[in-house]
Give the backbone structure.
Amino acid sequence: MKLSFKDFFTQKFVKSKDELIDIILAVIFLGFIASFNDWGDATFNFLEGLKNFFLAIVLSTIVVLVSIAGQKIVGFKRGYIVEFKKWFYGILIILAFTIVTRGTLWAPIVGGVVLHHHEGLRLGRFRYQVNQRAIALVAFAGPLSNIALALLLKPLIFLNPTAIETLIVFNLTYALFNMLPLPPLVGFNVIYYSRTLYFLLLGFVTSVWLFLTFYSTIITLILAFVVSIVAWAAYLYFVEL
């Protein structure tokens, strides 16, 4: 039986209870490390910290769900059910790093995705088995979705500069750190498929992260395109050739 897009969102968007728990834990963890230094200025303030923690949870929910939604939609289009899984050891490492640095440095690294076949989506598809190309493309849809949201929000920053800028930075930082070539992050899936593609995409993501704070959406995209080509060419010249 072929699965429709409507059925996918109503029945298969969250694959299981375990995935829902992983998403909730990832959001809570991101909210905690993002608000680690926001529990008062000179002295500890529980109410202020609780408010900032709640706001960080809201931002984390948006960032994580946008990323996962992008991956799941692309996976659906390619004939797969995509499942988010938390990276338990990665979360512990980042938590320890955040505590040691007293929240000065933190990295929004929480997990990755796994692709599953679905008979209703794979009917008539070429190459029935999951392949590394599909995994890489589906995985990168996450950072790309976060970048797309940030680019769309940039022209609206005048509505609420502080909130929108924070959401933009959070999306871009989440996208950038997910490009690290560590399993099960997006970067690992991409570099495992193609090193040249990895440096092209890494150049793009890094450029948007660097430039969007200072420039408009259009200028940022132009600069990101140029830098990504340079990064790709540099890798080919100095490493592959």
Q: What stands out?
A: The two ends are 49 Å apart (CA to CA).
